[in-house]
Amino acid sequence: MKAIIIGGGIGGMCTAIALRRCGIESEVYEAVKEIKPVGAAISIWPNGVKCLNYLGMKEDLRAIGGPMDFMAYKDFRSADTLTQFSLAPLVQHSGERPYPVVRAELQAMLLDNFGRDRVQFGKRLVNIEQKSDSVTAFFEDGSEAHGDLLIACDGTHSVVRKSVLGYCTERRYAGYVNWNGLVEIDPSLAPANQWTTFVGEGKRVSLMPVAGNRFYFFFDVPLPKGLAEDRTSLRADLTRYFAGWASPVQQLIARLDPETTNRVEIHDIEPFSPLVKGRVALLGDAAHSTTPDIGQGGCAAMEDAVVLAMTLQSNSLGIEDALLRYQNKRAERVKDLVLKARKRCDVTHAKDAATTAEWYAGLKQESGERIIGGMCETIRGGPLG
Ligand code: FAD
């Protein structure tokens, strides 16, 4: 059996590694010549970590993961702590630690694990054709690839999605802009082993420790789509949006490097359930595009990869049957993640001001139990428990 994998991001590389683990040959085709991840870092929650462990990257992941032991919310203006708690109960309940990692380091880990030279870069898929016993991928450069099945890991703008669904999906603007980057850890910004988030006015500023004495930081601001903002105005834009916010936020704005800070308008896609058609399957953001509000998009791609490989390996009724079983195992799970993230997004970013004010007030009463309970519920839904 040979699989064609389209896309060499988190989804594509995890799929290639998972298939290899199950003795299934694959070829990875990636559109760009060099992958430059759009975001600075990503938090991998225990459900994702377990998938990477299962795929043989336990030690490698620990080497690039940040020491996130505590979590805290702070008032935007006074920097007073609204709630602060240990993440030890999360680790205890789920059986794994969460690991915030730099995206470029995660991508390098995945590529090195599979074999960088085995990925065909500069191969942009433009079309696919499937027959009863094979699939052909057609690339922009006029070349073709042939396989028994095709796994589309070509991200949120997937060109394969339409041929699986039979219609085009629209990306939905979630109503806010996210800026993210990396900055050296300094206790005057936040404690080095804590995920710290300043909240107020429907905005947030977050600092998460990654390896190498760095914080992954991000700013969220509810804004209209399509504003003419870029690197040249970045510091001035953030200074304006966060006027009156506490000193650590002002220091972060002063210290960040606009050249390496990303600005992303956040979108998702209404969940859909056909994830496969015949010998073609969607995986990762191609199958489910979510807002990053519960940090689960990449983790879900890792879960997809593990489930797909297990399903193909354990099935004797053929590829089409195995892919349908993959769809049945994943459709509800990924729909749930997208909708949970959307709900969280709306509360965090003041879609309804009263609900968000209630959330801020609730944080003062929070012992951590409710927040960790919600995270554990999400994590437990993963394929490895
Ligand atoms: P992608 O990463 O988009 O990779 C798709 C790949 O396919 C790319 O390399 C692309 O070049 C290639 N490609 C595209 N079209 C073609 C084509 N036609 N032919 C060949 N190749 C093609 N997730 C988490 O789990 N935790 C987090 O903390 C988190 N934070 C996030 C923060 C932000 C601001 C954002 C925007 C997302 C965040 N996510 C997070 C989500 C996560 O980044 C995505 O879910 C994940 O990157 C999806 O991986 P993917 O491989 O499916 O898609």
TrEMBL record:
<protein>
    <recommendedName>
        <fullName>FAD-dependent urate hydroxylase</fullName>
        <ecNumber>1.14.13.113</ecNumber>
    </recommendedName>
</protein>
<feature type="domain" description="FAD-binding">
    <location>
        <begin position="2"/>
        <end position="338"/>
    </location>
</feature>
<dbReference type="GO" id="GO:0019628">
    <property type="term" value="P:urate catabolic process"/>
</dbReference>
<keyword id="KW-0560">Oxidoreductase</keyword>
<keyword id="KW-0274">FAD</keyword>
<dbReference type="InterPro" id="IPR050493">
    <property type="entry name" value="FAD-dep_Monooxygenase_BioMet"/>
</dbReference>
<dbReference type="InterPro" id="IPR047712">
    <property type="entry name" value="HpxO"/>
</dbReference>
<dbReference type="Pfam" id="PF01494">
    <property type="entry name" value="FAD_binding_3"/>
</dbReference>
<dbReference type="InterPro" id="IPR036188">
    <property type="entry name" value="FAD/NAD-bd_sf"/>
</dbReference>
<keyword id="KW-0503">Monooxygenase</keyword>
<keyword id="KW-0659">Purine metabolism</keyword>
<keyword id="KW-0285">Flavoprotein</keyword>
<dbReference type="GO" id="GO:0004846">
    <property type="term" value="F:urate oxidase activity"/>
</dbReference>
<dbReference type="GO" id="GO:0006144">
    <property type="term" value="P:purine nucleobase metabolic process"/>
</dbReference>
<keyword id="KW-0520">NAD</keyword>
<dbReference type="InterPro" id="IPR002938">
    <property type="entry name" value="FAD-bd"/>
</dbReference>
<comment type="pathway">
    <text>Purine metabolism; urate degradation.</text>
</comment>
<dbReference type="GO" id="GO:0071949">
    <property type="term" value="F:FAD binding"/>
</dbReference>
<dbReference type="GO" id="GO:0102099">
    <property type="term" value="F:FAD-dependent urate hydroxylase activity"/>
</dbReference>
<comment type="similarity">
    <text>Belongs to the FAD-dependent urate hydroxylase family.</text>
</comment>
